[in-house]
Amino acid sequence: MSPVTLSSLAALAALTLVSAQSTFPPTPLASKTFAYPTGIPYMVDTDQGLIRGFQKGYNICNGTTQNQDSLCQTSFMNSIDDFCLWAPSEPDSLVANTEGEMVAWCTKPGHGTRLIPEGALTGVQFIKTPAYVAVIGFVDQAKINIAAGTFGGEMDPHGADLRGNPMGGLVYSNSFSGGGSNFQQVIEWHNFMGGGAFCMKACDPANPDAAHFCEHRLDRIGCNFNVPNNAQNGTFESCDGENQDFPGVYTVNGQVMTYTQPPEDQGAIQTMPYTARVPATSNCVQKSSTELYAALATVTAASGSSSASVSGSGASASVTKSGSSSKPTSGTASATGSAASGSATSNEAATLAISGVSLLGVVFSALFLS
Known about the structure:
Blueprint: H1 6-19, E1 74-79, E2 82-87, H2 95-98, E3 103-106, E4 114-115, E5 121-128, E6 132-139, E7 153-155, E8 170-173, E9 184-185, E10 189-194, E11 197-203, H3 210-213, H4 222-226, E12 236-241, E13 249-252, E14 255-258, E15 281-286, H5 289-292, H6 349-353, H7 361-369
């Protein structure tokens, strides 16, 4: 009989734990639909025993959760003055380490979320097209708890384990349902954060190509390829626009090509075989940030957060638990008003699952990916 070693015990422990846990939920996040506001549950991700643990926050968000400690994970994408971004709940966080736990940071009160602090948004372009709405811009990311000077990653309603990043994150919009308080759940969306820039796209649920326009598998090549744009730092404008090409699809000499993202173990992506076509925009209306985001003057960034300035044009965000929370008292949701100093990761549930358990990491990864 072979001697019991530390490695064999670790492997046995990993096998036992994994056998008691599941990876995938019975129903993927992207297949869950909830009418706004009365159909939204307190938490969307309620399956027990899954490898990545539990949903960070909650989805019923109202006046009782409207503060800078909110863990609301119900987001909105309506207009240049009313949109939300996914960002960490704790200061100086890396996107790659927290994408499964992101919370909603919004430009307008009334959604029960945190507010993006004044001065964090330094340039924004909102585009409405026949197939989607998108917001692209520049951000002092330390003011929304992303470590200054770091690159980030991508959030979407899928993830490697189909629970989404963030887990349980919902997005609603009135852009496809007549405006006002007619909020409709957006099933397909993606949000890139990091490198002092961001882009968020919400695809029309009625469009048969929604999943293609809001492609979620190209998480390593950022905004320039997933949401091609002409956003300008220092400019705030809302425009009509043409549809972009599907992310990863391009044309060379009349031949339609599809880009395949290489696996991370091949190292950083150094070159791209194409430059994404930037779709034309029209009817652009410019306003000042003070006109658009007057309510943000009521909040400030967390103390101790450091800033880093970003200049240039064409936002190109690259990829890569504790704390107080205010939970809703009762009722329904209300709407009345590659990382620096570390390696960026993709939406791999295996990677997130073994965080802090390095002894068992190899076994977990092998089992998950097999």
